[in-house]
Amino acid sequence: MELPEATRVHLTVGLQEPPWTSQRRHFSALIPKKEDGKKRVWEQSQLLDVLEARIQQLQSDVIVDVQHEKVQFVKASKAGIGDSSGNSPKNVFGERPEVPKAGQTISKGGGQTGKGEGKDASASKSRWMEKLSQEKKTKTKKLKQKLGLEDKPVKSSKGKLMLPGTSHKTISTKAGIKTASTVKKSKSLKNQEHTMAASKHKHTMAAAPVAAANVPIRKAKGKGKASKEPAPELSEARNRAEEMERKAEAKARELAEVEELERKLNQWAVSARPELVQDNSEARVYGDVQRSVRCYLEACVFCGDIDRAHRFLLSHHRMVSRRNLLNIGLYNIMMRVWAKKGSLNQIGRMFILIEEAGLKPNLGSYCAALECMGRNPDCSPHLINRVLRQMEEDGLPVDELFSHCVFRQDERDMVLRAIHTVQPDFQSSINTILQTCSSPLVKDFYTERADAKYPKMAFSLEELQERFSRQLSIEQASTITIHSVEAMKPVTSHMAKMRDLLAVQRLVWHKALVGALREGKIILASSTQKAVRLSLYPYLCLLDEKDYVDIMIQSLSNLPPSGESLHILAKELGNRVHNMFCIRMKGHNQMVDKLSHIYNEYTELLAKDSKEFDVLPRERWWKLEAEHSSGPSLLGDETHWPHMVVVELGTYLVDLMVKHMKVNSDLLNSAYDRKLIPVLYHMYTFRSNKQVGFIKPHPILTQMQQDAMDTTLTFDSYVMPMLCPPVPWTSAKFGAYLLTPTKMMRAVEGANQHEILLEKCQDADLHAVLDSLNQLGNAAWRINQPLLDIIISIFNDKGSEKLDVPPPNSEAPKIPRYNQQDSATFTSAEKAHLKREVVNAKKKCSEMHSLRMDALYKLSIANHMRDEVFWFPHNMDFRGRTYPCPPYFNHLGSDVTRAVLVFAEGKPLGPGGLEWLKIHLVNLTGLKKRSSLAGRLEYANSIMDDILDSADNPLIGKKWWQNADEPWQTLACCMEIANAVRSPDPTHFISHFPVHQDGSCNGLQHYAALGRDVIGATSVNLIPCEVPQDVYSGVAQQVEEFRVRDAEKGLKIAQVLEGFISRKVVKQTVMTVVYGVTRYGGRLQIEKRLKEIDDFPKEYVWDASHYLVHQVFSSLKEMFTGTREIQDWLTESARLISKSGSTVEWVTPLGLPIIQPYHRSRTQMLKATIQYLSFQITHDSKERPDTVKQKNAFPPNFIHSLDSTHMMLTALYCYSAGLTFVSVHDCFWTHAITVDTMNKVCREQFVALHSQPILQELSNFLLKKYCSGLQSEVKSKKFLEYQRMLLLLAKVPQTGNFDLQRVKESTYFFS
Question: Is 54 exposed, middle or buried (0-12, 13-18, 19+ CB in 10 A)?
């Protein structure tokens, strides 16, 4: 709404306008511009009268000292500002505006003027008063014309002349630049309201003048005669004025809230850690480049090409434009090289280069210098003292050399030798005091250990040490070759012929690739590239040529017949080279011997024949490492290769394969003319409307591999489960496998935001997270051999889609073939139909091959481990959800893989164990979800004949187990029950079988607990009930009620859906809505379920799914009101945070920092020889956040972080109680005898978790992170967004009155 020019003035008495007010003109008001004309003009007139009355009051106030009055009319933004409390007004940032000295005025330019300029100021003021009066007359005239009143002059009360002593009261423009007569009329109604609110809140105005100013009353022609009754329009105007006043008061309260919040933020800012507000923009800009340069230098150094590395560093240093890319770590790499050679002159030159670059030496720099001096027996003690003094001047204690630096080979000994030259009695002191996690949730776990029963493993010390040696050998080899389960098939003559033929061809390809690689390296080494260019040459020298060729041929065996994307294939090859390099690097650094020594002592904690310890695995390992501090460090400082380096290297290897792997065309059919043809073809295909490079095998290779049915499979060593307990996680960079590099937190390829956050964490803050990962990894497993044999027999027969055993490729549909002559007679519609048939057949064949190979890998690994005990090391994703590291075979897999896994340690069933086995069996069938535990047990007892028949005759009996939801786990449970009931005493039967307890829609459980929502808590079994409440059935019932209502109203689709709304139709949508599924995604889920119903008319699928998803969302909104409020608050918070230019971060109640790596995508081009590859990079922290992904992902990711926290707490306290515990997210596993104990711990930790002020702590963290420590310029430029975010983040959703303690009594919370 356009306002008169005069309304935008800023009235100041002895006070300059705050600097941030000049920025608010850039934001439009929230009131729509299209408004009723009468209302707009009338409200403008009202504000003019208010301003005039206020001016009169100021002019008549001659006794008030203006130096203490400080009256302001602040130009307010649409969100409201200008109100402050106290005698001395401050802006919302707590800054006191500049106050001019006595006798000075504020000029219209915003500066202070001298005493002699009062006359000019008075004249300027008079001109302004004249302009204000004219504006009022014009607006009043327009107002009367709009209202249809006679056009009669309105008598306006002129302001009195200014009295002596008030000449220094001036009226300046808003920005202090333009005069009142030149400012455009662009203020909104909101700003009027805020100006009135500020004026009213700041000073109490006389009631009569305000009333007179608010509503002008017409007077009769005769002098002193009262006017007629006010017109209806005037009554309406009064109501509007009152409404405006109420809004103004609300805004005043809002402003007071903003000021209070900023006062808190200012207090937090004083004590906040610097990393909460620091923005290392330079590190973001150069981080990827520095990582590439560092990896290049490390590769050159490892392969011994020191000259290349030195030239590369110097070329960057000499170019000022590239010198900014270098950091101190890159110079230190070369310093370590010269230190190894004992070259003091080169070390001195490196210090000069560091000084020229404007960098400061760090501990690594001085460590290299001291190492070099230690290697020189003739080094002067004076020189060593000089280095130590310089360290002291730089604030770097000598002790920190040994606690912060990473040593290789004998570097530590050399540094000590140099120090002992001048300080013979020096002893490096290492802190051996164990810090504890500060989270109150785990305080008892770490402090009260008297009653802890940390479990031992059922192995002797010697057995564990022997297992360690076997695992170490496997990882040093980098790969492992195992027998395929298809090798169990009888070998035919054709099969043997194809195997021999394939073996011969592999030898030919191996020789050709070695020669091609050798030639390629010579070309790259002699190329005249600029010294500043990164070359692939050093990456091709890290391993033996044979190793590169083995990696290439291994990938050939895994290539599907339909081909593979060049990007994916290149990434796999590059990662294999990187993993092998890291393993070789650890061997080169001589850390394997030290690792063996520490691990052998660590096994004393786990072995059954050793003494009892009251420490955790992480604490024991940390202490042993401190005791054996001499020699190399176990934690390497190798840099993970950037994604582009990995792909570029892999692409080069793929190019070699395409060009040099050839086969005779008549190899399988002598009728063809003999010529050499490529084994692999590089082609292009379209995926999601994008052209993608593809590598496809020739049909000759595919035919040979399929007919040969190779007896062996080769995997990377990390694919296999470990043969010994994993190395405990002691930091975010060290743990899991013995030598294979593993990240504690998984991330998108190339994203490193998570690593940066973890590095900033205090070590103690991550202890609970690390200990929970160690607990999960220490669970020992073995194979259920009888069940595995049954599955393999079906797999080697023809498979079974019903039982989730994929059939062989021979069962795939034949791809239709049409010759050119026949197709010429087809119509266009027939040709399109034939084309669709071919596409569908190829798609089906590709899917069947993928499923078959996946099952082959899993079953072959299981068969290889059939006589072993093994372990799964764990890590986590960026939300804190835990996963086993081996990718194919683990307990998070399908029904088949879960069924063949049992605990290695057996425990007696005890008095209630058999009952839990029976209840677990019924849960696996999915038949009695609404029944009580007693009802399920009764049902299990009633079908004992079917259970025993399934166990005895799984493939030829009644096959009752095959109709269960999880058929293979059901069969495994039948076998366990049969063995138990047939034992002499079931209570003493040793059971290895894991019993599951699954959360009841766990995401909604967390939402209901956060919001203390009684109705929601009842629906998801947080409240004790006689029978389990099924939220899916509840939603289905609510949707059915909506459908009946709409059907009665004659809605066609509601009538069609009669009898088709079931629990199964809505379950997936209800389950995933809490994790952020949209209406579009929900509609697709329901559409899929409806298509599975044979009787449902297919022509109504789209309309029905659209209707049902709307009803499901409406039902959930009614049933879970608190959930929607919290979800909306999280979504809107993430939207405002990402719009401000930041990614959403938070910290879990256990202290794990989390960041959402969703940024706007950018395209990056890789110019490889075989083709140009284009990448969509979505995790680049230099790009602005992706607002849509940030806001949609925050609610589900936050809930995932809570359910992972609950799982970790349960894991820790179960470990303290001596239980075997593993989890599949919100499904917890343990022995039958310990189910009751696990259930108790699970409920207690859920209550403890949600007894914390989770949402309030989240609010405080977000306020500190995104609203604290901001510069005033940032606030003023985007003031409205800042204020809106401040108020929203502080406004935590209100909670209900649900009593969390009732969860402890709920039987079906987890069941």
Answer: buried
Q: Cα 648 from chain centroid?
A: 27
- The identity of residue 433, as a single letter, is I
C-alpha to C-alpha distance for 1229 and 1215, rounded to whole angstroms: 13
Neighbour tally for 124: CB within 10 Å: 19
Residue 1222, Cα to own-chain centre: how many angstroms? 23
Per-residue buried b or exposed e for 603-628, using 16+ beta carbons within 10 Å of the residue's own CB? bebbbeeeeeeeebbbbbbbebbeee
Taking alpha carbons only, the member of 756, 641, 878 closest to residue 284 is 756
Which listed residue (190, 1067, 1265, 1275) is catalytic? 1067
What is the DSSP code (8-state) at residue 21? Answer: G
Torsion angles phi and psi, residue 722, rounded to 5: -80, 145
- Nearby residues of 460 by Cβ (< 8 Å), 6 or more positions away: 607, 608, 609
Reported as a single tens digit per residue, the pLDDT across 99-157 is 444 444 334 334 444 444 444 444 444 454 555 566 656 655 655 554 454 444 444 43
Strand 662-664 versus strand 676-678 pairing type: antiparallel
pLDDT at 1000: 84
What CA–CA distance (Å, rounded) separates 787 from 785? Answer: 5
Report the alpha-carbon distance of residue 872 to residue 772 in Å, rounded: 13
Confidence of residue 220 (pLDDT cuts 50, 70, 90): very low
Q: Is 550 marked active-site?
A: no
Alpha carbon of 833 to those of 287, 493, 576: distances in Å?
53, 41, 43
Q: Where are the beta strands (DSSP E) in 55-192?
A: 105-106, 112-113, 170-172
pLDDT digits (tens, 9 = 90+) for 1003-1044: 889 999 999 988 889 989 999 999 988 888 888 888 988 889
Q: Give yes or no for a contact between 463 and 568, defined as CB atoms under 8 angstroms apart.
A: no
Provide the CB-side half-sphere exposure for 612 (13 A, CA): 9
Buried/exposed 563-584: b ≥16 CB within 10 Å, e otherwise: bbebbebbbbbbbbbbbbbbbb
**CA dist 1132 to 969, 1127, 1155, 1181, 1194, Å?**
43, 9, 17, 22, 10
Catalytic residue among 998, 1189, 1277, 1304: 998
- Going by C-alpha positions, the residue among 475, 905, 469 that lies closest to residue 721 is 475
Residues 968-1015: tens digit of each pLDDT: 999 999 999 999 999 999 999 999 999 999 988 888 899 999 999 888
Q: Where are the beta strands (DSSP E) in 710-796?
A: 712-716, 727-731, 734-736, 780-783
More confident site: 310 or 115:
310
> Would you call 1226 a catalytic residue per the annotation?
yes
How many CA atoms lie less than 13 Å away from 351 in the CB half-sphere?
A: 19
Select from 703, 697, 761, 772 the least CA-distant residue to 733: 761
- Cα–Cα distances in Å, from 1043 out to 651, 1058, 1063, 1108, 1264? 57, 8, 15, 9, 48
The pLDDT value recorded for residue 1034 is 83
Three-state DSSP state, 1133: helix
- Rounded to two decimals, the pTM is 0.79
Task: Report the chain's C-alpha Rg in angstroms.
Answer: 38
End-to-end CA distance of the chain: 61
Which two three-digit tokens encode residue 980?
């138990």
In the DSSP assignment, the letter for residue 670 is: T
Nearest to 1249 by CA among 1155, 1147, 1146, 1148: 1148
Active-site residue (options: 550, 895, 1030, 1226): 1226
pLDDT of residue 188: 40
Which candidate, 902, 942, 947, 895, places its Cα nearest to that of 921?
947
Residue 707 is among the residues annotated as catalytic for this protein? no
